[in-house]
Amino acid sequence: MSDTQHLKDTKTYFNSDAAQAFYQSVWGGDDIHVGVYDDPSLTIGAASRETTKKMVDILPSSVDGNTRILDLGSGYGGAARYVSWHYGCKVDCLDISEKQNEVNTKKIKRAGLDQLIHVIEGDFQKIPSEDSAYDIIWSNDALLHSEDRGKAIQEISRVLRPGGWFIFTDILHGEKAARGSLKAILERLPAQSLSTLKDYQKMLRNVDFEEEYMEELPQHLITHYTRIQKEFKSEKKVLIENMGEESYQKYLKGLSLWVRGAKKGYLNWGIFLYRKAKK
């Protein structure tokens, strides 16, 4: 595993009591990614699950018991459990946080999926898997935390079989944001920068991936973080008990910046599908 300061900071953030309280009390502790709010009445948790369903629908090849999937930056493993439960496929969950992996492991066992889902501690720059090990690489809003996204994509290419699929969501650098203007927004997270859509397209072309589907959905990012901010305020008492007043105020300030940034077009979000060239 890489030993950079960024990697240490990322582990510290996701293992912190503040992050655990935030993701479990506000986000629901299951799916902790941006949701799809085609139905505006959906809760945060239900909208996040809609993202998973939409991604499964986008995949052009069938998912079954012979399919091997790597969930890159799996968090609490909600997407992995959904896909494995409904399709009987094997999923490896790769995440850097021991705390999130511990929660995920407990949820997997309660769901009776421990024969299908394997939890691995690791980072994107050095995926602990053999070459061409997976049919599908799946990732929800995780690549933004990578110190070197180009290297991460090279690793994704290495462990994905020829003709395999890479499907992911991520929060992007919006077209209306000048380079370097997101510093204050990103201070809430151990993220140094965001990639634009064109950045990803270039990095993926460089390792022989072909774009099969691309949908920018910034409106859902606005709705999601507005809901998160509202829920965060409503859970103030519980959150302060679990993360402390100082952390609560820091997160609240950060969420305000994210909502404002999303509304101004400084941030973008979408769902993307790429296929690795057959060789």
Number of domains: 1
Largest sheet: 7 strands, mixed
Question: What's the CATH class, please?
Answer: Alpha Beta
In CATH, the homologous superfamily goes by the name Vaccinia Virus protein VP39
Strand order of the largest sheet: 3-2-1-4-5-7-6
What topology does this entry show?
Blueprint: H1 5-15, H2 17-25, H3 44-58, E1 68-72, H4 78-87, E2 90-95, H5 98-110, E3 117-121, E4 134-140, H6 149-159, E5 160-173, H7 183-186, H8 197-205, E6 209-216, H9 218-234, H10 236-243, H11 245-263, E7 267-276
Parallel strand pairs: 1-2, 1-4, 2-3, 4-5
Antiparallel strand pairs: 5-7, 6-7
Helix pairs in contact: 2-10, 9-11, 10-11
Keywords:
alpha/beta, 11 helices, 279 residues, 7-stranded mixed beta sheet, Rossmann fold, single chain
Description:
The protein contains eleven helices and seven strands. It is of the alpha/beta class. It has a seven-stranded mixed β-sheet, with helices on both faces. Helix 9 (218-234) runs antiparallel to helix 11 and helix 10 packs across helix 11. The chain is globular. The relative contact order is 0.16. The model has no long low-confidence stretch (mean pLDDT 94).
